[in-house]
UniProtKB/TrEMBL annotation:
<keyword id="KW-0539">Nucleus</keyword>
<dbReference type="InterPro" id="IPR008967">
    <property type="entry name" value="p53-like_TF_DNA-bd_sf"/>
</dbReference>
<dbReference type="GO" id="GO:0000978">
    <property type="term" value="F:RNA polymerase II cis-regulatory region sequence-specific DNA binding"/>
</dbReference>
<dbReference type="Pfam" id="PF00907">
    <property type="entry name" value="T-box"/>
</dbReference>
<dbReference type="InterPro" id="IPR001699">
    <property type="entry name" value="TF_T-box"/>
</dbReference>
<feature type="region of interest" description="Disordered">
    <location>
        <begin position="209"/>
        <end position="246"/>
    </location>
</feature>
<dbReference type="GO" id="GO:0000981">
    <property type="term" value="F:DNA-binding transcription factor activity, RNA polymerase II-specific"/>
</dbReference>
<dbReference type="GO" id="GO:0005634">
    <property type="term" value="C:nucleus"/>
</dbReference>
<dbReference type="GO" id="GO:0045893">
    <property type="term" value="P:positive regulation of DNA-templated transcription"/>
</dbReference>
<dbReference type="InterPro" id="IPR002070">
    <property type="entry name" value="TF_Brachyury"/>
</dbReference>
<protein>
    <recommendedName>
        <fullName>T-box domain-containing protein</fullName>
    </recommendedName>
</protein>
<feature type="compositionally biased region" description="Polar residues">
    <location>
        <begin position="209"/>
        <end position="228"/>
    </location>
</feature>
<dbReference type="GO" id="GO:0000785">
    <property type="term" value="C:chromatin"/>
</dbReference>
<dbReference type="InterPro" id="IPR018186">
    <property type="entry name" value="TF_T-box_CS"/>
</dbReference>
<dbReference type="GO" id="GO:0001708">
    <property type="term" value="P:cell fate specification"/>
</dbReference>
<keyword id="KW-0217">Developmental protein</keyword>
<keyword id="KW-0805">Transcription regulation</keyword>
C-alpha cells in the first residue's frame, strides 16, 4: 500500500492521452544489454543512469503528483557465476512497497510537461528506514523494474485520482552491494561524470607515484636519490656555510610545511601550483639574506 493511501483502480480514459517516455534510451539500452546493476548501501546510493522521463497529455491547469517505485521483475534471487547472472534460489519476502515522491509534487500539469522530470535524488538502500522519504529499500541480488505513477489531485475535498502507471522494462537492474560485472563498472565510469572525475584523479595519482615515492629514482647523471642525499650530506660537512639555517618557528610563514612538498596531497601537485617558501641564508661575515 502506498504511503499516500491511494486506491489504484482501472485507469480512466485520460490515461490514454497521457504519455510518459524515458529519456536517454540509448544509454539505458547499453546497460540493459549487459544486465544492469545498481548499488544499494545502508545509507543509500543514488542511481546511475538517473531516471528521467518526459510527460505529455496532462491538463495544464490540473494538479498532479508524480511518484516512482520499484517492483520485483521476477521471482528469483540472482547470483553472478562465470561472468553471467543466473537464478540462484527463491527470492526474499518482499517488504511493503516504498514510494518516492518527486520533490516538485504536487504541481500543475504545465510544470510537469515543460521539461524532463529527473529522479536524481532518490537513493537505494538495503536497510528499511521509515523516516527518510528519499530512500527506497531493495533486497540485494534481486531484480527490479522502476515505474512512474501520475496521480491527479482535485475534485471534492482534494480527492486523489490515479491516472497513469508507466513501467520501464529497459531500466531493469539487479541490486548489488558491489558491482559484479566489470563491463558494467567500466560503462558507468565512462558515462557518469562523477565517476569519471574520480577515475581521472586516480590516474593522476598513479602517474605521480614513480616520481614522488620511488626511492630508486635516478637523475640525469645516473645517481639514485639515496646517492644524492649522501653526497649532499658530505658537502654540508665540508662547506657548512652553504647550508641554509632554518627560519625560527616564532616567525611562521604559513601553516603548511613547505619544506615537505613530497607530503602534499597528490591532487595539489597534479594541479601544477608552485609552492615556494622564502629561505634565510647566513654568510661567514654574519649578514643574512632572504632568497
Amino acid at each position: 500500500m502506498s504511503p499516500l493511501d491511494i486506491k489504484i483502480e482501472d485507469a480512466p480514459s485520460e490515461a490514454d492521452q497521457i504519455e510518459v517516455k524515458l529519456e536517454e534510451e540509448p544509454l539505458w539500452n547499453k546497460f540493459s544489454n549487459l544486465t544492469n546493476e545498481m548499488i544499494v548501501t545502508k545509507n543509500g546510493r543514488r542511481m546511475f543512469p538517473v531516471m528521467k522521463v518526459r510527460t505529455k497529455g496532462l491538463d495544464e491547469n490540473a494538479m498532479y503528483t508524480v511518484l516512482l517505485d520499484f517492483t520485483a521483475a521476477d521471482n528469483h534471487r540472482w547470483k553472478y557465476v562465470n561472468g553471467e547472472w543466473v537464478p540462484g534460489g527463491k527470492p526474499e519476502p518482499q517488504v511493503p512497497s516504498s514510494v518516492y515522491m518527486h520533490p516538485d509534487s504536487p504541481n500543475f500539469g504545465s510544470h510537469w510537461m515543460k521539461q524532463p522530470l529527473s529522479f536524481s535524488k532518490v537513493k537505494l538502500t538495503n536497510k528499511l528506514n521509515q523516516h527518510n522519504g528519499q530512500q527506497i529499500m531493495l533486497h540485494s541480488l534481486h531484480k527490479y523494474e522502476p515505474r512512474v505513477h501520475i496521480i491527479k489531485i482535485g475534485g471534492t475535498a482534494g480527492a486523489q485520482e490515479f491516472v497513469k502507471t508507466q513501467p520501464f522494462p529497459m531500466t531493469r537492474f539487479i541490486a548489488v552491494t558491489a558491482y559484479q560485472n566489470e563491463e558494467i563498472t567500466s560503462l558507468k565510469i565512462r558515462h557518469n561524470p562523477f565517476a569519471k572525475a574520480f577515475l581521472d584523479a586516480e590516474q593522476r595519482k598513479q602517474n605521480d607515484l614513480p616520481i614522488s615515492t620511488s626511492a630508486n629514482y635516478s637523475n640525469s647523471n645516473g645517481r639514485s636519490a639515496a646517492q644524492n642525499n649522501r653526497r649532499k650530506r658530505a658537502e654540508n660537512r665540508t662547506q657548512p656555510y652553504k647550508r641554509p639555517v632554518p627560519v625560527a618557528k616564532s616567525e611562521p610563514i604559513s601553516s603548511i610545511d613547505f619544506g615537505a612538498q613530497h607530503m602534499m596531497p597528490s591532487f595539489v601537485q597534479s594541479m601544477g601550483i608552485p609552492i615556494q617558501a622564502p629561505v634565510r641564508t647566513f654568510s661567514p661575515d654574519g649578514s643574512s639574506a632572504v632568497l
